[in-house]
Design brief:
single chain, GMP Synthetase, Chain A, domain 3, OsmC/Ohr_fam, alpha+beta, 3 helices, three-stranded antiparallel sheet, three-stranded mixed sheet, 145 residues
Length: 145
């Protein structure tokens, strides 16, 4: 098994994570339970990973389909269980894909392929939560090259 990250406690609820790829980030808890709000919550990081993973998939699939994608924003919404452990029970991923004359069928296909085949984070989370997806397309003017 490969070590992916090391998380070191600093103080209060503040932790620093270092990834195998050499990047560091701070996580913290909210002030009402002893944190100082210096970084995202660990559970937020799970959804950050989902958003990043699926964004890469959708962009790469659309680029391979020769779509003129200019931007992809992923908004992740979630509900958590009321009792401990407060796991995510529902997750909704909304894609806002911008570009010139994008084909809605290709965008839909890219989202579906990411959700059903390529996004490891999504596939893992769907084992514990209901994960849904939708998208919207923002048509931009022709790119000026």
């Amino acid at each position: 098994m490969e070590k992916i990250t090391t998380v070191k406690w600093l103080d209060n609820l503040t932790m620093v994570a270092e990834t195998a790829s050499g990047h560091a980030l701070v996580m913290d808890g909210p002030p009402d339970i002893g944190g100082r709000n210096l970084g995202p919550r660990p559970m937020e990081m799970v959804l950050v990973g989902l958003g990043g993973c699926t964004s890469v998939d959708v962009i790469m699939i659309l680029q391979k389909a020769r779509e003129q994608v200019r931007d992809c924003r992923v908004e992740v919404y979630a509900e958590r269980a009321d009792t401990v452990p407060k796991v995510y029970t529902k997750i909704h991923v909304h894609y806002v894909v911008s570009g010139h004359n994008l084909d809605p069928k290709k965008v839909e296909r890219a989202v579906k392929l990411s959700a059903e085949k390529y996004c490891s984070v999504s596939k893992m989370l769907e084992q514990a939560a209901e994960v849904t997806h939708d998208f919207e397309i923002v048509d931009e003017t022709a790119p000026s090259d």
